[in-house]
Amino acid sequence: MNQREKEEYLREYAILKTQGKPFWPYAVAKDSAMACVVMAVIIAMSLVLGAELGPKANPTTTTYVPRPEWYFFFLFEVLRVIKPPSLVPLATIGVPTLCMILLFLLPFYDRGPERRPERRPIATATGIAVIAAMAFLTYQGANAGSPTTIEMSTPSTVTHTGGSSLAEYEAGKKVVAQSGCLACHKIGENGNSGPGPDLSHVGARLYRQAIARTLVNPTAPMPSFKNLPPQKFTAIVNFLSQLK
Amino acid sequence: MPKLPKLPAPPLPAALQEAPPRPSEGKGPSGPLEDAKQAGITVVDWVDERTSLSGATRWLLFRKVPKGTNWFYTLGSATMFAFLSQAVTGVFLAMYYRPDPAGGAYESIRYVTNDVFLGQFVRGMHKWGSSVMVILVFLHMGRTFFFGAYKYPRELNWVIGVVLLILTMVMSFTGYLLPFDQRAYWATIVGVNINGTGPLIGPYLSDFLRGGSEFGATTLSRFYAIHMLLVPGLLAALIGAHLYLVAKLGTSAPPWQKVEKRSELREAEV
Ligand code: HEM
In this structure, is residue B27 part of a structural domain? Predict the structure, then answer.
């Protein structure tokens, strides 16, 4: 906007303002009506949906659903879409930071005098696209559950050996299924593909020690599982190293 | 120009002058009934004489709102109302809450939910109020975006608004941990880890949030202080600045609103 456009805007705005109604009581009445609606919605949600409280936090058992409040789902989904570890920083902070900077600076790069949405096609289309993308990602996030069972055929190497090896395998499968790993990893047909890598064949990729080291000292955003009871921990490592 | 002395008002003709009260009317000029009638005005006058607030109040309340202002313009104040509701219900929750990760936090929330009179109701209002507030912030931002209300001269108000948006999200992130149940605990660990992957300040940010390199006893009190003191204070102050700018600049008119110039204004323009 150049000086002439600014002055023209201020002049037209001053006219519209003199033709308007006073804030009190006209705008205040509308705002109060809206406040009553907001209050009614909050009270109704509280009465209908209540306030649940899950089991107490416990670092040594991980039957948890590592899910944020629903309005952060879209961020979590960005993480799922951009998977290679080298790109994770980009997904987690890079994209949101970039969006925030673009949002902050909006009035400084969009300086045209036009205000009607239909005459600002780029801005309006971008706005609608962003809303659609966020709605889609939130929907995806809402539907990405965290299953607590693993259904897959036992590898033939394990069934052949049988005995204690098979028992270890089954025990580990149960712990992994209940420990929320599937929220971030895919094992066979189970779980979400991302943000973590597919674990269906980790045993072929990593040695036992490497798997154990990852569990104790993982790369973010994976939480550390070093507080698990030792026998659960070994069960996980045994199970994963048999996935070849 | 030197100030000219004001001429005294011309005396009114006797016929137009107000008749003095007759002795039979009331009990004189300072009877208790008159005093009671005047009490409100007296108090307001007393305060105004010492604060000069009436000018500001008049400026705030009797400014004009441009023609064509519609229901979309109530979204901002609805957001503020949701914030106030969060503040009030939050105070009640704070009366019971103990930021003690060893079990006190969870127990205090369990106590509020199950045993306190209307406790679950107030906790539910706070919990769902946060969702309502986030939705309203986004709707309000959408309104200002599509109406082009961030353009000259309201750029600064947009920038303050973005800070308000971030602070609102920080509130919900820090509040999520406080009940300290399994879901809160593990979701927050993952959330803090995500912060840690950020470029440059990422690791420092997550260390700051955890209060060390480990998720430990100080983490909960940090989240509690941030959620209870730091961010609400900032939010309240910035909402004040945001509203001051709205009152000073006036809310924008809807972009479709036509300006019909009245004849006397058109003449003035020539
Ligand atoms: C805690 C959150 C917020 C509160 C309580 C709040 C409150 C308000 C109120 C009461 C108004 C008066 C006009 C109206 O209601 O539409 C307003 C105007 C405005 N707000 Fe906000 N707001 C918040 C967040 C935001 C955000 C996130 C943005 C954008 C990034 C924003 C940008 C603006 C702008 C540009 C105006 C001027 C609109 C105009 O003049 O038409 N605000 N705000």
Answer: no
- Supply the pLDDT for residue B90: 96
Please give the residue range of the domain that contains residue B96. 69-249
B145: in domain: yes
What would the two tokens of residue A119 be? Answer: 């005459």
Return the number of CB contacts < 8 Å for A and B.
259
Q: Which of residues 174 through 213 in chain B touch A, CB cutoff 8 A?
A: 176, 179-187, 189-191, 193-199, 202, 206
Give the CATH number, domain containing residue B80.
1.20.810.10
Cα gap B184→B110, rounded to integer Å? 14
Query: Does B83 fall in a domain?
Result: yes
By residue count, chain A amounts to 244
State in Å: Cα B76 to ligand 1 middle.
5
For strands A190-191 and A186-187, give the pairing. antiparallel
Of B136, B148, B187, the CB nearest to A67: B187
- Give the global pTM: 0.82
pLDDT at A93: 65
| Region B91-107 average pLDDT | 91
- Give one DSSP letter per residue of A91-134, joined into a string: IIIIHHHHHHHHHHHHHHH---S---GGG-HHHHHHHHHHHHHH
**Domain count along chain B:** 1
Does residue B193 lie within any of the structural domains? yes
| pLDDT tens-place string over residues B6-40 | 787 777 887 788 777 776 665 555 677 777 878 88
Inform me whether the pLDDT recorded for B265 exceeds 60: no
Which B positions 98-157 lie with beta carbon below 8 A of chain A?
101, 103, 106, 109-110, 113, 120-125, 127-132, 134-136, 142, 145-155
Task: Name the band, by pLDDT with cuts 50, 70 and 90, for residue B49.
Answer: very high
